[in-house]
User: Fold this.
Amino acid sequence: MTGHPEPTTDNTDIELTGPSLEESLARLSTEQIRFISARLNAKNDKEAAKLIGLSPNTVYSWSGEAKAIIHRAQRAYLQNAILAAQAVLQRHVLEAALVKIQALQGHPEGQDKLKQDAATEILDRMLGKPRQSVDVIGHASDGDVVPKTYVTISPDMWDSQE
Assistant:
């Protein structure tokens, strides 16, 4: 646990651009708005308060409504950050695939290890890692060692109900 609010994919109580979040934020003081930003980069409320020159006791004394608005705003910010990162990576999937093709075709530009590593990372994150075999060695119920076998796994299989 990092002390940061956990990002969520449940949008039931977060409106990222709607007037309800804006109206809620309008009810906060300047210090509370500053605290939202500081809290995103701090380990805990005490550290965030000190970062913006507030006493931790001031933060602890805020109303439950203010704390709820602050928490909600932090979650909305984190969700936007995740979506923005995914969008940036998505824009570079084709470019990453082309780097792999350049290497396949022997182009000098495709031989750059840094580019190849970055391309692999982008493709793995956006498309899932390719299937890979895993060595599996186990023990039978009678204590005998089960012979080494290979199992093929894929991220696509994780979501299946098989």
